[in-house]
Write a structure and sequence with these properties.
By secondary structure, the chain is α+β, with helices and mostly antiparallel strands. It has helices spanning about 25-30, 55-65, 105-110, 140-150, and strands spanning about 70-75, 80-85, 90, 95-100, 115-120, 125-135, 160-175, 185, 190. It comes from Streptomyces sodiiphilus.
Length: about 190
């Protein structure tokens, strides 16, 4: 028998506490400022019906407008994968990011022209397959560069950065198993909903 399987819960002693007992669910809820269990962003209960396509599209577009970071997966010409988080700007249907010219993400995008991008969260998935290219930061339009500077940082006039321009070809969005059907919102660059 594993002696740890019958171990008593560890005592939690907070400053000012008069006992060494572990807090119960009610006191944990009061401490957390919530009356129920913790929630995960985007997580739906098993009874929540799947969202219709237009709602998923609105949600995906809102996340693209509001989120700051995105996971970027690329592969080299010989198939070596690379995945990194980068800050991004969603501007007029294009995802803009910047990185150092010699970083693997830039090298991979130069050689393959493809990337898979994902907004954070496994219970609120927005997964994007995109055509991409590496461009000098000075090749960004004044509107794009200005929006990037306002949201993230100003890269204009710098040789230390290159811009990554990714145009979505496929967008899929879902939260739970009940939303797997109908998760494809865009195909071949055209919205389906």
């Amino acid at each position: 028998m594993d002696p740890l399987s019958h171990a008593a819960p560890a005592a939690v002693i907070r400053p000012g506490s008069r006992t060494g007992r572990a807090p119960g669910p009610a006191s944990l809820a009061r401490c957390a400022g919530t009356a129920g269990p913790p929630t995960v962003r985007g997580m739906s209960s098993p009874k929540t019906p799947p969202r219709p396509g237009p709602d998923r599209k609105r949600h995906a577009l809102r996340r693209l407008a509001e989120d700051i970071d995105i996971w970027v997966a690329t592969t080299s010409a010989d198939g070596v994968p690379c995945m990194v988080p980068l800050s991004f700007l969603w501007h007029e249907g294009t995802i803009w990011m910047c990185t150092r010219p010699g970083n693997p993400t830039a090298a991979n995008l130069r050689s393959t022209g493809r990337a898979v991008l994902s907004l954070d969260g496994t219970r609120d998935v927005v997964l994007i397959e995109a055509d991409g290219e590496v461009v000098p930061v000075d090749a960004m339009s004044p509107a794009e560069a200005g929006a990037f500077a306002e949201r993230l940082w100003d890269v204009r006039g710098s040789d230390a950065w290159v811009a990554l321009r990714c145009v979505p070809r496929t967008v899929r969005a879902w939260r739970e198993e009940n939303e797997l059907a109908g998760r494809r919102l865009m195909r071949d660059g055209a919205w389906l909903v």
